[in-house]
Design a protein that fits this description.
Layout: H1 3-12, H2 25-40, H3 42-56, H4 65-78, H5 80-91, H6 96-104, H7 106-123
Helix pairs in contact: 2-7, 4-5, 4-7
Length: 129
């Protein structure tokens, strides 16, 4: 394993969530790779969404909490450029081996990644005020 892979794995931290013998390979990837990266990059995701809402949704701060939650979900689900930027923030912290696994399973892993990211941002909606 090269230095970059070792550094990334140590930098991201350990598994978040349970991984057992019954876990699918995608579930293991989610808990061993995606969750630690999402946690590590949390402040960057918040800053990114603050910038996004200032640029594209100037009235975000005056919206009701319910509308803010819908705006978060809509931005990530429908704005392909923004969604791809968020994926890049995550993928950039993959090891080569993880990236190769991701390429084979990108459709399902992208769904998992974006669902977790949406929930993460929604749970911190108060930070956008």
């Amino acid at each position: 394993m090269d230095q970059r892979d070792v550094f990334l794995k140590e930098f991201r931290g350990g598994t978040i969530g349970s991984v057992g013998t019954q876990s699918s390979s995608e579930e293991m990837f989610q808990n061993q790779v995606l969750r630690p990266i999402l946690k590590l990059q949390n402040d960057l995701f918040i800053a990114s969404f603050k910038n996004y809402s200032a640029k594209y949704n100037r009235d975000f701060h005056s919206q009701t909490t319910e509308k803010k939650l819908a705006t978060i979900e809509n931005a990530i689900q429908k704005d392909i450029k923004y969604r791809n930027a968020l994926k890049g923030i995550v993928i950039g912290l993959f090891t080569i081996e993880e990236y190769l696994f991701y390429l084979k399973n990108s459709s399902n892993l992208n769904k998992r990644m974006m669902t977790m990211l949406i929930e993460r941002l929604k749970s911190q909606v108060k930070l956008f005020e």
